Amino acid sequence: MKYSKEDIEIINNNPFLRKGEAQIIKDIMLMLPKNPSILEIGTFKGKTAILMAKTRPDSNIITIDPHYGIPDHQEISSSFEAVIKNIISENLLHQIIHIKTNSQLYTPTKKFDLIFIDGGHTYNDVKHDFEKFKHYCKEEGIIAFHDYGIYHTAIIGVTKFCDSINVKKQIGGTICFFKKNQIEENLVENKDGN
To answer: Is the dihedral of CA 161, 166, 171, 173 positive or negative?
Structure first.
């Protein structure tokens, strides 16, 4: 996939959330039970994990990212050093565990109250992350997808995948989420495989 110069500038210089999304993340965090456990798939420079940790100081967060950069765009480099620097600068090493790996290789050893999917944005990447990690969501847990409702060619796979299942709840225009007990009952196959 080819990104425009503007896309690359946005990715490199503003690795955070679009307008209003920080409040949406905070609202989701406040729905979680005491001492929530969180898995973030795809962290880039760690800003969302840091926001989650600051919103819920009682939370424990595992965040994974392979930090490949984007192979076809060497100007979008690995973010590994930045994520570690950001976590340390916020004094959150006790709360955020960052693992440099991809979602295909990582297998959790526990269940989570929130699984935040923001890794690969192709339809197949999103489907893989959902299918693999939904089993690690607690019964009343939340699975959230970042970038839902965005129709940019680089990330439309998130919207296409979410639209292929029966979405029970949506907050804002960019993140949709489901209670796990509703996912199993309402999963619908996308017949065209897109």
So the answer is: positive
Query: Which fold does the domain 30-186 belong to in CATH?
Result: Rossmann fold (3.40.50)
Question: Rounded to whole angstroms, how far apart are CA atoms 113 and 56?
Answer: 13
What would the pLDDT profile of 22-53 be if each residue is shown by its tens digit? 888 898 999 899 999 999 999 888 989 999 99
Cα atoms in the Cβ-side hemisphere of radius 13 Å centred on 27: 12
Burial 102-137 (b: 16+ CB within 10 A, else e): bbeebeeeeebbbbbbbbbbbbebbbbbbeebbebb
Structure tokens of 109?
């050893």
Residue of 64, 67, 121, 71 lying closest to 96 (CA atoms)? 64
**Which value, to the nearest 10 degrees, does the dihedral of the CA atoms of residues 24, 27, 32, 36 take?**
70
What does DSSP assign to residue 94? Answer: T
pTM of structure: 0.82
d(CA 116, CA 49) in angstroms, rounded, equals: 10
* Residue 61 · residue 47 · CB < 8 Å: no
Where are the chain's structural domains?
30-186
Kindly report, residue by residue over 125-158, the tens digit of the pLDDT: 999 999 999 999 998 889 988 877 776 666 688 8
| pLDDT band for position 187 (cuts 50, 70, 90) | very low
